[in-house]
TrEMBL record:
Source organism per UniProt: Psychrobacter phenylpyruvicus
Protein name: Cardiolipin synthetase
Pfam families, alphabetized: PLDc_2
Segments forming domain Phospholipase D-like: 85-191
PANTHER family: CARDIOLIPIN SYNTHASE (PTHR21248), CARDIOLIPIN SYNTHASE C (PTHR21248:SF12)
Top-rank taxon: Bacteria
GO biological process per UniProt: cardiolipin biosynthetic process
Length: 194
């Protein structure tokens, strides 16, 4: 009886390994060649923007120092991001590990889109680990000529993402935990929204 049970367990384990190996082989896709993608660079600070005129005098009085203001309340931090997006005149550089397809995510995305409509260059870098189900939204926003969305360490398997770990675990296990929202190259909010 014990030998029969061990044989069944062993057969199950071997079958499971074979099945997982087959799934890994069938779902493996290499990343697309991106050697001819458009390069994107930091733009120098324009001293004529509203934010520059507000902050450059303090920066000149205190060279080499940074000004810090603690946003301890999540609502205040969220409103500060919306305010920065509304104040930006030249650039918005935004990086997030988690961007959800929820009310907060939609309001922030809308603020970025409105900035782009005003002529602001918007660059959004998101960790692809947390963008599941957002491909259509991101593609439509990325179609705007003033918006560039890039995904860090993208999953090739878009619908069943966990399968990607079977064939590409070591690459996909590297994640980007950046959390920053920078307007006109001068004012940055770091940390999570919540």
């Amino acid at each position: 009886m014990l030998i029969k049970t061990l044989k069944i367990v062993l057969l199950f384990i071997v079958s499971l390994i074979a099945l997982l190996s087959l799934v890994a082989i069938l779902t493996y896709q290499s990343l697309p060649d991106n050697t001819d993608r458009t390069e994107s660079h930091y733009l120098p600070v324009d001293p004529n923007t509203t934010l520059a005129q507000q902050f450059l005098p303090s920066m000149q009085q205190h060279p080499g120092l940074s000004g810090i203001y603690l946003l301890a309340d999540s609502h205040e931090a969220f409103l500060a991001r919306l305010s920065l997006a509304a104040s930006a005149q030249k650039t918005l550089d935004v990086q997030y590990y988690i961007w959800r397809d929820d009310t907060t995510g939609h309001l922030l995305m809308q603020s970025l889109y409105q900035a782009a409509e005003r002529g602001v260059r918007v660059r959004l870098l998101l960790d692809d680990n947390n963008t599941g189900g957002m491909d259509e939204l991101l593609a439509s926003v990325n179609a705007h000529p003033n918006i560039e969305i890039r995904l860090f360490n993208p999953f090739m398997q878009r619908r069943f993402r966990p399968l990607g770990y079977l064939s590409d675990f070591f690459r996909l296990n590297r994640r980007m935990h950046n959390k920053s929202f920078t307007a006109d190259g001068l004012v940055t909010i770091t940390g999570a929204v919540t």
